[in-house]
Design brief:
two-stranded parallel ribbon; 11 strands; single chain; Rossmann fold
Length: 312
């Protein structure tokens, strides 16, 4: 039987690029929906993906990307304020195209009364996609393991400090590659997953001081956890890093959620659907020593986000 074409949005982002690669390795034709054609999209073409530039906020653009598509991975950039409009366009276009399965990237903090506007939008987006009757499954990951070097890579490399306002709360960091394996597992055999909401985590729920211990051991250097006031961290993201107000408001809200235990969970979803256990934080750090040692600059991330080039 001929395998269906799968549309991967956010295909140059953290999870999307892995989803494209893994689907192609399984022999599925992949259409990669990108914000712009650049060196990252060219790498997807080299892998064998059909690259289609487009805009979530243009319904005709979304319709064109879905021609001949039966399954979709939908992920919208976290800095975008128009998630609901993008979701509605995707839902309408997918319904009209006869899409049979869609995996929606939501988040563990998505709920009706969340203090983060983005988390509330994710919850509403889940409802919209459910109403479209297009075979939706929702994934709700905790914080990505990549966030550790994204937000604290510079302070870890330069000062031996892991700086995040997460308090005494816990989470089980999960690598983007492991999230992608769940997405692929659902898209390959979607029927059993329709209507489900899956919380995705790494293997071990841990406090930030414990995370700092793991970093210290694997990086072979002293690493201390520093818990700044959320208001202070928020000012840094706004004034020094240059993140947009909408994203900073979300990040501050989920930092409070972390302190309140919203992100604390351990699940076996990655192993059950993705086929093997999620990688430990120790293994992740060993695989990304260069990123932790180089100290990536949030300012560079901010510039990419303002261009619309960073997605989950």
């Amino acid at each position: 039987m001929e395998k269906p074409t799968i549309l991967v949005t956010g295909s140059t982002g953290k999870t999307g690029a892995y989803v494209v690669k893994q689907l192609i390795e399984k022999g599925f034709p992949v259409r990669a929906f990108v914000h712009r054609v650049d060196e990252r999209s060219e790498q997807l073409q080299v892998l064998g993906a059909e690259v289609v530039p487009g805009d979530f906020l243009n319904l005709q653009s979304v319709r064109a990307a879905m021609e001949g598509v039966k399954r979709i991975y939908f992920v919208y950039p976290p800095q975008g304020e128009r998630l609901l409009e993008a979701t509605a366009n995707v839902a309408v276009a997918a319904r009209d195209a006869g899409v049979e399965a869609l995996v929606n990237m939501s988040q563990i903090s998505a709920r009706e009364k969340a203090s983060s506007p983005l988390a509330r939008q994710h919850w509403l987006s889940e409802q919209i996609l459910d109403w479209a009757n297009i075979g939706v499954s929702h994934i709700r990951p905790t914080f990505f393991a990549e966030d550790l070097y994204l937000f604290s890579g510079r302070s870890i490399a330069g000062e031996g400090k892991l700086v995040l306002p997460f308090g005494d709360g816990k989470h089980a960091p999960i690598a983007a590659e492991d999230i992608a394996r769940v997405v692929v597992g659902i898209l390959v055999e979607p029927d059993a997953h329709v209507g489900q909401r899956y919380v995705l985590t790494g293997p071990k729920d841990m406090t930030m001081p414990k995370v700092a211990e793991v970093l210290a051991k694997e990086l072979d250097k002293s690493v201390e956890y520093v818990n700044p006031p959320i208001a202070q961290w928020r000012r840094v993201l706004l004034e020094k890093v240059g993140f947009p107000e909408f994203l900073v408001t979300h990040l501050a809200a989920v930092a409070q959620d972390h302190q309140d235990g919203v992100f604390s969970a351990e699940t076996d979803v990655v192993e059950k659907i993705g086929g093997s256990p999620p990688q430990s934080l120790e293994k992740f750090v060993r695989a990304h020593i260069a990123e932790f040692s180089a100290g990536p600059k949030l300012e560079e991330q901010s510039k990419r986000e303002r261009r619309g080039g960073v997605q989950s």
